[in-house]
Amino acid sequence: MRKEVIIAIVVGSILGLAVAFGIWRANQALSPREFATPTPLSQTQLELLVSEPEDNLVIAEDAVTVAGSFRAGATLAVLYNLGEKIIEVGADGTFSESIKLEAGANEITVVGFDENGESVEKTLTVVYSTEFKAEE
Prior knowledge:
Order of helices and strands: HEEEEEEEE
Number of helices: 1
Strand content: 35-45%
């Protein structure tokens, strides 16, 4: 008789836990969830797009054109191994500047500044190698 009571208690406990777990899962599934709403980009966020040159580009010329788009009328600083250049973005929001490269890896950093003094930067690596020049 004692065995049957212990078995009934164990089975009843397991059954009760299973029912309680099922109710808890159902409540979680039916409760409204709070989703994070994406925040729209504010007008103050800066976006600097450098379309030329590609990052990790290997070229055989000792000069490359740095071009892209940024806020119209903003100021850009182009920093590279052999110097730096300050350029103004055109009224259409585009910029283009030719820079000299030294042999080997050249790190090019383009930093854009808006009228409020906020800045954004992009860094690219361009490798200048004479090994790829066409033989005549």
